[in-house]
Amino acid sequence: MTSSSYQIIVRNLSQTTQYFYVFQKQAAFPLLPSPDPILSGSLGCQSVGNYATTGAQINFGLDSQIYAGALSTKQASASQLIALLALNAATLSVVGSTSAFRPVTLTTADGSPDNCTTLTLDPLGLSAPANQAGIAIGGFGINVPSYTPLPHPELYCGVVALNNNQAIILSSFVAPVPNAIMNCIPKQIFFVKMGYQPVGSTVAYDESNAARCDFTTGYATYTVTYNANGTFSAAGGP
């Protein structure tokens, strides 16, 4: 982890051991054609027993840095989509996939020197970010080259998140429009939900009965409690 990170502590007050997973609030993708779904990835998943009995808790760590990412599934089917990237290389193969990522800064009203990266397809890669006009405030851009979308998408772009296991996971992503600049507006808001969702797997986006950890308010840590009655509570700290 970097020195600037978010921490989500999870305590289980139910009488049985439970799995919990973390996912990020879906990013906005302005000008995205409506039929294209926004996909979400599991950023962490772990089981823990009753807090009062065991004293055990889960600590999910997330880098506060924003990353742009791209993924080519090649021969992988949609059900095999696992967007897990190792931090030790800019591109690599994972479950028949090739991925790339770059740290970016979000556009402000005064602009940003590093708000857009350019995607290349052969080989897959993302350029060092540079200034690009027309990127939505609060967002970053990916300059997508011309390509031929297939009936089942094989190319995805969006925001990725670095967890405390030194892995970057595609967090909120779409099949991009060819020959266009894709705008992505991420939110540093994360949710904890009960259930088993392996790290990097795609998850159904559902904020209901989940703990909301809003790091845009200035908190660096959230303590999430899963109560005996099946509800969540979350409290932010320094």
Write the SSE topology.
Blueprint (H helix, E strand, L loop, with lengths): L4 E8 L5 E7 L14 E3 L2 E5 L2 H4 L3 E6 L2 E7 L11 E3 L4 E4 L2 E8 L11 E6 L2 E3 L13 E5 L10 E8 L4 E8 L5 E5 L4 E6 L7 E2 L7 E4 L6 E6 L5 E6 L1
Parallel strand pairs: 1-19, 10-12
Antiparallel strand pairs: 1-5, 2-4, 2-16, 3-14, 3-17, 6-9, 6-13, 7-14, 8-9, 10-11, 12-15, 13-14, 16-18, 19-20
Number of strands: 20
**Helix vs. strand class:** mainly beta
Helical content class: under 10%
Low-confidence stretches: 75-96
SSE string, helix = H, strand = E? EEEEHEEEEEEEEEEEEEEEE
Index terms:
four-stranded mixed sheet, 46% strand, elongated, eight-stranded antiparallel sheet, 238 residues, 20 strands, mainly beta
Characterize the structure shown:
The protein is mainly beta and 238 residues long. The protein has one domain (5-237). Helices cover 2% and strands 46% of the residues. Strands 3, 6, 7, 8, 9, 13, 14 and 17 form an 8-stranded antiparallel beta sheet that branches. A 4-stranded mixed beta sheet has the order 5-1-19-20, with no helix packed on it. Strand 13 and strand 14 form a beta hairpin. It starts with a strand and ends with a strand.
What is the gist of this entry?
This protein is 2% helix and 46% strand. The chain contains one helix and 20 strands.
